[in-house]
Amino acid sequence: MRNSHPAGGFRGNNVDGMWQAVEELRSRFEKRSGTRAGRGEVRSAVLALLAERPMHGYQIIREIEERSGGSWKPSAGSVYPALQLLADEGFVSAEESNGRKIYSLTEAGREDVAGADDSAPWESTGPASGTGFAALPKAGVELAQAASQVGRTGSREQVQEAVTVLNDARRRLYSILAQD
């Protein structure tokens, strides 16, 4: 026997299951301090910061953490290899100062930063329109919460319409990955 609301929505264990799914989604997507960023985001962050002023590696880590509101703290194991790669590419140079390497942009690095239209990876203007890596997970959690609300309070027709919308969204997301 189906556990349903007279209007067609879900209640009881079905709602509990829906909320459990929302919480699982949230826990998988929430950005934790020190977790990995997307490919190229450490590089972009380092270039953006060095465009402002020369810094040593731990200053870069602290600045990223501060500017992301604590949601992203890259490890030294990701920042220093990025700095080495940028030096190998000729975009940054390092000078010793008080026993620390201070990194700064080279002319090629300044040209690369000037030619980029991207905002810094920690910047986000909203759940779906931000360019930072936190925008997608936040939008996913908010979508799951909306789906849960429809499941709890919607009519049978509204629930079916929501399922159609979600199936279409899933197909469209996979089509993004299929693009070159």
Structure description:
By secondary structure, this protein is mainly alpha-helical. It has 2 domains: 13-31 and 136-178; 41-124, Winged helix-like DNA-binding domain superfamily/Winged helix DNA-binding domain (Arc Repressor Mutant, subunit A, Orthogonal Bundle). The chain contains 7 helices and 2 strands, in the order ααααββααα. Strands 1-2 form a two-stranded antiparallel ribbon. A hairpin with a 2-residue loop joins strand 1 and strand 2. Helix 1 (13-29) runs antiparallel to helix 6 and helix 3 (57-67) crosses helix 4 (76-88).
Topology:
Elements (H helix, E strand, L loop, with lengths): L12 H17 L11 H12 L4 H11 L8 H13 L3 E6 L2 E6 L1 H9 L19 H19 L2 H23 L2
Antiparallel strand pairs: 1-2
Share of helix, binned: 55-70%
Helix-strand topology string: HHHHEEHHH
Which radius of gyration do the C-alpha atoms yield? 22 Å
CATH topology of the largest domain: Arc Repressor Mutant, subunit A
Low-confidence stretches: 1-13, 31-35, 124-130
Number of domains: 2
What is the count of β-strands? 2
Distance between the termini: 47 Å
Strand content: 5-15%
Briefly, what CATH class of the largest domain? Answer: Mainly Alpha
| Count of DSSP H/I helices | 7
Could you name the CATH homologous superfamily of the largest domain? Winged helix-like DNA-binding domain superfamily/Winged helix DNA-binding domain
The assigned structural class equals: mainly alpha
Average pLDDT figure: 78
- Silhouette: elongated
Q: Specify the CATH architecture of the largest domain.
A: Orthogonal Bundle
Q: What spatial order of strands do you see in the largest sheet?
A: 1-2
